[in-house]
Amino acid sequence: MNNLTIKKTLIPYLPLAAIILAGASFSSASFANDITHSVRSDTEQVGSTENYFELGLMYGQGSGPSTYNNKWSEIMLVVNGSYSWNNLFIEHYSESGNGLVLGYNAINNENWSLDLTVTKDLGQADFDNNRIYAAVNPEDYYPLTVGGRLTGYLGNNIVQFAINHDATGDHNGTTASALIGRNWQVRNWNFHGIVGVEYTSAKLNDFYVGVSAERAAYVSDFIDGFSAYDAGASVSFSTELGVTYPITEDWVFRATARAATISDEITDSPYFQNQDSVATSFRTSLSYVF
Question: What pTM was computed for the model?
Answer without folding.
Answer: 0.81
